[in-house]
Amino acid sequence: MSLQPASTEVTERVASVIDACKGLEGPMLPILHGLQEEFGYVPPEALPIVAEALNISRAEAHGVMTFYHDYRTHPAGRHVLKVCRAEACQASGGDMVLVQLQAKLGIGFHQTTSDDAVTLEPVYCLGLCACAPAAMLDGQVFGRLDADVIDEIVDEVRR
């Protein structure tokens, strides 16, 4: 994959985030969080800039970025739907919930619908084990998911 150099605007925005976080202990994760907040995702062309600023290899920066599921390499849809994949949710019908959601939305994990309405992401525990299966839409949690709740969620993201 050939990476295009960052534009001047992107470079300046990335540098601003780095400057705000570089003095922190273990600055890599705060920088990545800051970039995702700034851009809505972590632009791939930002990683070489981060690597140079932290005196680490591009491979190390890429490895940290891809290790954590919450970082995106492209913009998310207007809504982000996170489906719990932890054991309690799977044991309580989470696989059925996932199949229904994917069928209704027409996408898989780490994909966005063609109308940019929703991005579907896995999450590995929402802390709602007693109310499993669970999901989170734009920060609002839903427990005891069934076909009716799935329809409500899909209707919400399609509006």
Automatic annotation (TrEMBL):
Its cofactor is [2Fe-2S] cluster. The keyword Transit peptide does not apply. Keywords: 2Fe-2S, Iron, Iron-sulfur, Metal-binding. Pfam families: 2Fe-2S_thioredx. CDD domains: TRX_Fd_NuoE_FDH_gamma (cd03081). The keyword Metal-binding applies. Belongs to the complex I 24 kDa subunit family. This is Formate dehydrogenase subunit gamma.
